[in-house]
Each structure stands twice: as structure tokens, then as C-alpha cells.
Known about the structure:
Keywords: Lipid metabolism, NADP, Oxidoreductase. It is an enzyme of class 1 (oxidoreductase). By secondary structure, the protein is α/β, with parallel strands linked by helices. It has helices spanning about 10-20, 25-30, 50-60, 75-90, 105-115, 145-165, 195-220, 245-250, 260, 265-270, 300-310; strands at about 40-45, 65-70, 95, 120-125, 170-175, 225-230, 280-285, 285-290. Helix 5 (about 105-115) runs parallel beside helix 6, helix 6 (about 145-165) packs parallel to helix 7 (about 195-220) and helix 7 (about 195-220) crosses helix 11 (about 300-310). An eight-stranded mixed sheet has the order 3-2-1-4-5-6-7-8, sandwiched between helices. It contains eleven helices and eight strands. About 45% of the residues lie in helices and about 10% in strands. The two termini are about 35 Å apart. The longest helix is centred in the middle third of the chain and has 23 residues, at about 145-165.
Amino acid sequence: FNDSGKNLLVTSLPFLVLRTLPSIKDRIRRRCKSTARLEGKVVIVTGANTGIGKETARDLAQRGARVIIACRDIAKAEAAASEIRAETGNQQVIVRKLDLADTKSIREFAEKFLAEEKELHILINNAGVMLCPYSKTADGFEMHLGVNHLGHFLLTFLLLERLKQCAPARIVNVSSLAHHGGRIRFHDLHGEKSYNRGLAYCHSKLANVLFTRELARRLQGTKVTANVLHPGSVYSELVRHSFVMTWLWKIFSFFLKTPCEGAQTSIYCAVAEELDSVTGQYFSDCQPAYVSPRGRDDETAKKLWSVSCELLGIQWD
């Protein structure tokens, strides 16, 4: 694709996700089969007030974990937490404020979490935005890059020592099949020269894959693993910024995964016993999946790491 995105039509992102529409057979077969219990484990799930994040939190709470729902919309998060507590009987479902579009909020969340919680075993970087009209975060980052990549990059950095202290521990990053359409445009990371919201989403999802790859490399020997996943084509609120995608989602809703089905690979990466020592991998439908060539570019991953640290004003060696 050229930088202007003229070779990627508006309909190409829907094509990327609709081509993976699951069959009914797949929905039944490709569920997380692990029966692992999580009593005594502490989990953070970002964006868990709705969609696959909420279903992930629900499942982990059912397994006995202490679940921190980290969200920007506190009212929706409290409603989700109340529902999960009532359904699972697990009263250890806690809501904390986290706005990934504001590094000040991310730092405040991490500071409060580290003061209140002595352990962290699973970090699920689930929250995300998709197909937003051009806008910037509180720190001046393009919204998709800022929320989907840089926000979770900073959050992971701030919490990593606690994860290491509690190892074995896991970091799970939610990406997308759309990473196949992405590239890291270092000369225009914030879309100020040209902007296509479909491409911006793809770029940010590629950043998730590259971040996970480099993070896993750096964490070798720590017993903290990092894996990334595509949840599938899920009927959720994520497409609310696009009339075309909202329309397509309604037409094809029967073929789309429910949020519960979409959460299965996140849950699998968080709890499956066979993944205890697996790291740096990309999953879809609870099994390893193909990563685009750009998603396997180690030099780009290292450069993105360096640039991300510079943008966030952190030193992460």
C-alpha cells in the first residue's frame, strides 16, 4: 500500500474481518477448554466494561481470580462489575479508572494499583478504538496509535516489575487480523501528513504484534510471557465510529462471533496450561495463527520500541 492509503479502499477493512467469519461448527469447537482455577491470582483487564473485555473478565472471575476492570467510563464499568459479581458470586471484581488516551491517567492508575495490590499475575491489554475520525489523545498522539499501542505500552512498562515479582505471569495483547493491512509509518506516526481511519487502525494493530514480539524477546528468562491474538470478527460496539461497518455488522450479525465467543482466545492465552512457557506467539481461535511478514520484522519491532519510549519519555532497556 502507498502512504496515502489510496490502494486500500474503505471496504478493505470489512473484507479483512468478514473473510474470517466463523461457521457454527467453529464456534462450538474453538472455545477455551482449560479448566484452570485462578484463586489467589490477580488479573487486570483493560476495557472490560463491554464486549470481549467484559466476557473475559466474567470468565476469569468465574475461575476465582481477583479481577480489576480498568476502564475510562466508570459508570459502565461499575454496571459490568456488579453484573459479574452477581452472576459468578465472586465479590473480588473491582473497578478502577483508566483512560488510555491520557498518560497522566495511566500513571495514576498504575500508582494506585501498585499501592493497593501486592500481586499481579495476568495483564490483559484488551481496550481499543477503531475507525475513529481524526483526533489526538491528551498527549498529542494520533488516537489509534495512542490508545491501542502507546497507552498499553506505557501501562505494561509501569506494571512489569510487579508481574516479574509474581512470576510465572502472563501479558496478553489483543490485536487483530487487520494487522495484515498495517505498516509502521515512522515518518508520519500521528497521521498529520495523511490520514485514513481504516489504515490507522491497521497500523495500530500491527504495532500490537510488534510490541509483543519485542517484549517477549526482552522477557526471556523472567517467567513472564507475552502473547498476542486476533479475537475474530465479533459483534460489538467497537465499530460504532463507522456507518459502513455498523451496517455490515448488522447484515452479517448471524455469522459474527458473540462477545463471549470472541473472548475465548484471550481467555485461552491467559489460562491455558499448555502455554505456560509459550511466548511471543500470535493466536486466533485458540490456536497459533499466521503473522504477516511486517509483523515478523525484528528491526521494525526494535525501532518501534525505541520510538515509543521516546514519545512517552521513558527509558525501558
